[in-house]
Write a structure and sequence with these properties.
Elements lengths: L7 H4 L5 H10 L7 H112 L2 H18 L6 H27 L3 H13 L3 H37 L8 H26 L4 H29 L3 H6 L3 H6 L10 H24 L5 H12 L3 H5 L1 H14 L14 H34 L4 H29 L12 H4 L7 H7 L3 H43 L1 H10 L5 H8 L7 H6 L3 H13 L9 H29 L29 H24 L3 H31 L6 H20 L6 H11 L2 H11 L6 H10 L6
GO cellular component, one term: Golgi membrane
Keywords: Golgi apparatus, Membrane, Protein transport, Transport
InterPro entries: COG7 (IPR019335)
């Protein structure tokens, strides 16, 4: 049996002989004897050790033989390195010597080359000068020959020679002569160019174009092309006046029933015919002027729109007036109304602006067709073309803020907030209810008006006047809220609390001590049923305030989202960064920013010409991304102020009955009354609460029922129902606290009370305390102390106060009761 030995295991770090032997024993066959296996393993290890020793001896002998040879090779390489170093040093020395000589040679060659080039330039200049003199002398013969291409070439050569000789006094006359000759050749080309363009001679147009380009007069071709082809476009435009006159004659001939021609119905046909004409010119120029058609045809339209601009604006203005009979009769439009050149009472209406937007949409369709037709043109040219198409509307867009203010102001005047008929005593509840209903109905109406204004801004200006829109909306909302406040102020008279101190005053005034008697006298003559009718109507005003707050908040959130969409569509993040580089950035640079996707964006087209306005708008749109941003800041403040005023009015109405019942409590004669002496013994009876406090208690206990309609009006969901319940409970507590404060103030005004009066007042306080407990209201320490001190006999009160020491009783209140009952604590 041979034991296989892996010698690699012995070379491993941490080799353990015992572990290796145990592992070898575990790997033996169970039938092999242990001693024989151990002997075989020992023999295998000895054999392996002998093999290793033999190999080591052979390798050592070979190494001893190779060492002397390696030493000799090292010595030879060292000698070679020394020789190489010496050779390299010699070469470097030679290079240093050659470098100095070469630098001097190169410098000399450079000077020679400079002289050579100057001589060549002088020679060329002399040749040009000689040629210029010769050309100047022979140019008249060239012109006389009538060979226009040759004349153009001659003039181009003269121009080149003049640029070569520079500003030499001897050739000043030649320079003037050249300018005259170029004008002369331009005039000679002109009639032929007119004929070639008129008769569609492609070859002739191309030849004449080359002549003009050769003498640097390509502008002449552009001007002549534009001058010739703008006439058909102007004729198309004048067709409207011709058709109007013909229509007028037709009306005079057949009577007034003949239909009149409107600009809004004619404009689409004008755009269609214009587009057809431009398409024909585009196709022809592709063949005749393949290098220029991309700019030539768009510039034709730009010039045409420039000449038609004033007339276009005038027709737009009159077209906006045609939609309203009043302005149509006067032949006036939006601009006339804004300038005040109208009869008094004439107002800008929504229909005027809608007509303008409809015309703008027609122009937008034409602009999109142009973008498709001129898609191969340079982006800047395309952008300028589209701006020219929209240019007639610019005057209206600049005054968009004024238009929107005028329209919204006119619309607001139609909203009848105080439409209820004034009624006399006994019908205030009906008047109040009708007015509150109109106030509540006006809120969704005004929101609809605001939303329509936002839609008009986007449709007409693309959002470029969003900043003016926001200012207009804020101003209009202030006007509307001012109307609400005035109506609310008049409702104080209807509710009988116009002279009552408001809830925002101090506690003493809240108690009614400084109240005038006008409101009280009015309430004295009002029936119980009418009182509750007024209370119910006043509570509905809370629904108005809640509706106003929620609807304005929702609209403002929607407005912020709209501003964000406008910012995205305009890509103002890119435009704003370009403006930061320079406030006076050229129009062309800004145009390149918008030239891609936003080329048709109406707002982007405008903003390229007004970088400062664009930057202002960009800042606004950036701010609108913040949830804390108030798009209508003044409106938000006024809505909050309106809610506060509503709360004051409602509180005054709810507390007015309490204030009326408790107004003279401190001066009731029963407090100072004494029991009449009697000869017969009479039974003693417990005191019952008086009418004034029972009336107040019944009112407070009935108040939750009056608040139920308020809960139903505010709640719209489960969450809203919980909120409304809390709102109603809060008002109930507020009125109960106010009643308690009024009663407390009256108690403080009592100067003297007898034992009989104390017994009666104790019963009154106990009743009111029970009412407060029923309403889950805590009993104020003042009332509980007052009640305890009044219900305690005179001879025991001093000991009670000393014994309590302030643990249960409010000591200042207890001292007050002692002064009222004339009890000395000393």
């Amino acid at each position: 049996m041979v034991v296989v030995v892996d010698l690699g295991e012995f070379a491993e770090e941490g080799f353990d002989p015992k572990r290796w032997i145990n592992a070898a024993l575990e790997g033996r066959h169970p039938q092999d004897p242990l001693d024989r296996f151990m002997a075989d393993a020992e023999e295998s290890l000895r054999s392996a050790a002998d093999g290793i020793a033999d190999a080591l001896e052979r390798e050592s002998a070979d190494a001893l033989r190779r060492v002397p040879l390696a030493c000799r090779d090292v010595l030879r390489l060292r000698d070679d390195a020394v020789a190489l170093r010496s050779a390299v040093a010699s070469i470097l020395s030679s290079l240093r010597e050659a470098e100095g000589t070469s630098a001097e040679s190169i410098a000399a060659l450079a000077r020679i080359d400079t002289v050579k080039r100057r001589m060549e330039a002088a020679y060329a200049t002399l040749q040009d000068a000689a040629g210029l003199t010769q050309l100047s002398a022979s140019v008249e013969d060239v012109f006389a020959s009538g060979d226009l291409p040759r004349a153009a070439e001659t003039l181009a050569t003269m121009r080149h020679c003049l640029s070569a000789v520079g500003e030499v006094a001897e050739f000043a006359n030649v320079r003037k002569q050249l300018e005259v000759l170029e004008d002369r050749l331009d005039e000679m080309v002109l009639p032929r160019l007119v004929d070639a363009l008129s008769n569609r001679k492609v070859d002739a147009v191309q030849d004449l174009r080359r002549i003009l380009i050769r003498i640097g007069r390509f502008k002449s071709l552009e001007l002549q092309y534009t001058k010739m082809h703008i006439k058909p476009l102007k004729k198309l435009w004048e067709d409207f006046d011709l058709r109007q006159r013909a229509n007028k004659l037709e009306m005079e001939k057949h009577g007034e029933n003949a239909a009149s021609l409107s600009f809004s119905s004619w404009l689409p046909s004008f755009y269609d015919e214009t587009l057809l004409y431009l398409e024909q010119e585009w196709k022809w120029c592709i063949n005749s002027l393949p290098d220029d058609y991309k700019s030539l045809v768009p510039k034709l339209l730009i010039e045409a729109m420039s000449e038609l601009n004033a007339s276009f604006v005038s027709r737009l203005n009159l077209a906006t007036g045609d939609v309203v009979p009043e302005t149509k009769t006067l032949a006036k439009g939006i601009m006339d109304i804004l300038s005040g050149d109208m009869p008094k009472g004439t107002k800008l209406q929504n229909k005027h602006l809608e007509a303008l937007i409809e015309l703008h949409n027609v122009t937008g369709t034409f602009a999109r067709n142009l973008q498709h037709l001129f898609s191969e043109s340079d982006l800047l040219i395309l952008l300028n073309t589209l701006k020219a198409v929209y240019s007639p509307y610019e005057l209206f867009k600049v005054r968009y803020g004024h238009m929107e203010r005028a329209i919204l102001s006119s619309e607001i005047t139609r909203i009848d907030i105080r439409g209820a008929v004034s009624r006399g005593v006994g019908a205030q509840g009906i008047e109040l209810s009708e007015t509150v209903r109109r106030m509540e109905e006006s809120i969704p109406q005004i929101i609809v008006l605001l939303e329509a204004a936002v839609e008009r801004c986007i449709n007409f200006t693309g959002g470029s006047e969003a900043d003016e829109l926001i200012l207009a909306l804020d101003d209009i909302m202030l006007q509307y809220l001012s109307n609400l406040q005035e109506t609310l102020k008049s409702l104080r008279t209807v509710c009988g609390v116009d002279n009552t101190t408001t809830h925002s005053d101090s506690a003493k005034k809240d108690a009614g001590l400084d109240r005038k008697e006008g409101g009280a006298r009015l309430m004295d003559v009002v029936s119980e049923e009418e009182e509750w009718s007024i209370v119910q109507g006043a509570l509905q005003i809370l629904t108005v305030a809640d509706c106003l707050s929620s609807r304005t908040a929702v609209f403002e959130a929607s407005l912020r989202a709209t501003l964000a969409r406008i910012g995205t569509s305009l890509s103002l993040s890119v435009f704003g960064s370009s403006l930061d580089k320079s406030h006076a950035a050229p129009v062309d640079e800004n145009a390149e920013v918008f030239a891609g996707r936003a080329a048709l964006d109406v707002a982007a087209l405008r903003l390229t010409d007004v970088p400062e306005k664009a930057k202002k708008l960009f800042n606004l749109l950036e701010q609108s991304k913040d949830p804390r941003f108030h798009a209508l800041p003044l409106t938000s403040q006024r809505v909050a102020a309106f809610s506060d005023t509503v709360n004051e009015l409602v509180y005054d109405v709810l507390i007015s009955k309490v204030r009326q019942r408790l107004s003279d409590v401190s001066r009731l004669p029963i407090w100072s009354s004494v029991e009449e002496p009697s000869a017969l013994p009479l039974p003693t009876f417990s005191a019952y609460p008086q009418a004034y406090v029972t009336s107040v208690g019944e009112y407070l206990l009935t108040l939750p029922q009056q608040l139920e309609p308020l809960v139903e009006g505010i709640s719209g969901s489960e969450a809203g129902n919980e909120e409304a319940q809390f709102f109603a409970t809060e008002w109930m507590f507020k009125v109960a606290e106010g009643a308690t404060a009024l009663f407390t103030e009256q108690l403080r005004g009592i100067h003297f009370i007898t034992d009989r009066g104390a017994q009666q007042l104790s019963a009154d306080i106990e009743y009111l305390s029970n009412v407060l407990s029923a309403l889950s209201m805590p009993i104020p320490p003042f009332l509980s102390t007052f009640h305890t001190c009044l219900s305690t006999p005179r001879d025991q009160l001093r000991d009670l106060i000393k014994t309590d020491g302030g643990s249960q009783l409010d000591l200042p209140t207890a001292n007050l009761v002692c002064r009222i009952r004339r009890i000395s604590l000393d």
